[in-house]
């Protein structure tokens, strides 16, 4: 699939500024509290770089196959063009936080999904965290397949099970967090995003995406060393 052609049609450049403004608020008001300014952060499926552009951290790694991604990434970000289940350019235990937003649903099989989780576990430092923002099939039904490149349907329960199998401990699970897309009725502006994040009852009414914070558990071998 031609990723540049697909995403250019889905996210016209005139819409990217508004999308970027929404991500700025999400980073400042929600995600930043889980990331230290000295952390090395790896963004799986970094897209147009909105998360890495607005999160404060020590160093940034973007994993993205779209050839157009490089021109949108923040200065100093390291771009890796390789499949998420083969992060050979990233050393063992060298990353503090892996962020995956709307990524796992694009994988074509459960085998690749589990391989990716194991690879994330490898590159994370001891007690490193995997932060997941993901469509939750439990609340989407047929809408999940409104997008041509959606393959792997997951709920917060199946995601939790996969994480446990891959050596993670789920620290926080919010089954209903954000609306399905940035084109949902709300929120569509930075002010509305701030209101939405503050008004948690709205999450239950409008949330179609899960949020999960999973911590890497050390293996028996790692504990002995």
Can you walk me through this structure?
This protein is of the alpha/beta class. It is built from 8 helices and 7 strands; from the N terminus they run ααβαβββαβαβααβα.
Strands side by side in the biggest sheet: 3-2-1-4-5-7-6
Strand content: 15-25%
Distance between the termini: 44 Å
For the record, the CATH class is: Alpha Beta
Global Rg: 17 Å
Order of helices and strands: HHEHEEEHEHEHHEH
* Count of beta strands: 7
Please work out how many helical segments DSSP would assign.
8
State the fourth-level CATH superfamily: Vaccinia Virus protein VP39
From the coordinates shown, what is the CATH architecture? 3-Layer(aba) Sandwich
CATH topology term = Rossmann fold
Biggest pleated sheet: 7 strands, mixed
Name the helicity range.
25-40%
The unreliable regions are: none
Which outline best applies?
Answer: globular
Mean pLDDT: 88
Number of domains: 1
Assign the structural class, choosing from mainly alpha, mainly beta, alpha/beta, alpha+beta, or little secondary structure: alpha/beta
Summarize the structure.
Strand 1, helix 3 and strand 2 (59-63) form a beta-alpha-beta unit. This protein has 8 helices and 7 strands. It has helices at residues 3-10, 13-29, 50-54, 110-123, 156-165, 190-198, 201-206, 220-224; strands at 40-44, 59-63, 78-80, 95-101, 124-135, 168-174, 209-216.
């Amino acid at each position: 699939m031609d990723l540049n052609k697909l995403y250019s049609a889905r996210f016209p450049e005139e819409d990217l500024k508004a999308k970027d403004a929404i991500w700025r608020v999400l980073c400042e008001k929600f995600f930043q509290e889980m990331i230290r300014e000295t952390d090395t952060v790896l963004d799986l499926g970094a897209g147009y770089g909105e998360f890495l552009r607005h999160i404060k951290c020590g160093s940034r790694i973007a994993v993205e196959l779209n050839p157009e991604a490089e021109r949108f990434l923040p200065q100093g970000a390291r771009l890796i063009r390789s499949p998420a289940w083969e992060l050979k350019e990233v050393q063992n235990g060298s990353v503090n936080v892996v962020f995956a937003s709307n990524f796992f649903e694009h994988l074509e099989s459960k085998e690749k999904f589990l391989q990716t989780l194991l690879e994330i576990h490898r590159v994370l430092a001891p007690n490193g965290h995997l932060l997941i923002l993901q469509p939750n099939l439990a609340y989407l039904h047929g809408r999940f397949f409104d997008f041509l490149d959606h393959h792997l349907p997951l709920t917060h329960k199946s995601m939790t099970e996969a994480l446990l199998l891959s050596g993670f401990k789920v620290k926080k699970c919010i089954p209903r967090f954000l609306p399905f897309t940035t084109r949902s009725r709300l929120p569509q502006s930075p002010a509305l995003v701030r209101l939405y994040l503050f008004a948690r009852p709205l999450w239950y009414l409008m949330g179609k995406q899960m949020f999960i914070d999973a911590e890497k558990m050390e293996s028996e071998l790692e504990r002995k060393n």
